Amino acid sequence: MRVAIAVLCLMWLCSCESRRLGRCDVARIFKQEGLDGFEGFSLGNYVCTAYWESKFKTHKVRSADTGKDYGIFQINSFKWCEDGTPGGKNLCKMPCSDLLQDDLKASVKCAKLIVKTEGLKSWDTWDSYCKGRKMSRWVKGCEENC
């Protein structure tokens, strides 16, 4: 019995570690944070990119060639945020841990800087899975929530 309780507690802790937002939740937050039409890209472009980068997991961290990638947009620590990566530039002027917040404010703020300086082409996933495709499907059915 104690083993079963311990296993359940561990499962609960793991589920708290990585939160996955719903598509419409992401669309609503992105719209509130000013991404709809930002730099000429529709809201669907940002939702599509976030999906292919992280499957909408706000706490996702993965190793990259240089540094690590953080949060819903998988923003790299070598260039954009601070996590102690040697030679890191921290152009977004924030700790990488800020990119793991469920409110997505820091992620959107940093993504805006990336898009302003490099465009959405900075994300390979946008180029491979979103660019030139119908983006309305990423926000379909979310209108009443946005």
TrEMBL record:
Signal sequence extent: none
Pfam family, one: Lys
The protein's Enzyme Commission number: 3.2.1.17
Keyword flag Repeat: no
Keywords: Antimicrobial, Bacteriolytic enzyme, Disulfide bond
Root EC class: hydrolase
InterPro entries: Glyco_hydro_22, Glyco_hydro_22_CS, Glyco_hydro_22_lys, Lysozyme-like_dom_sf
GO molecular-function terms, A-Z: lysozyme activity
Ranges of residues in domain Glycosyl hydrolases family 22 (GH22): 92-110
GO biological process, one term: killing of cells of another organism
CDD domains: LYZ_C
Protein family: Belongs to the glycosyl hydrolase 22 family.
PANTHER family in the record: LYSOZYME C (PTHR11407:SF63)
Protein name: lysozyme
Organism name: Cyprinus carpio
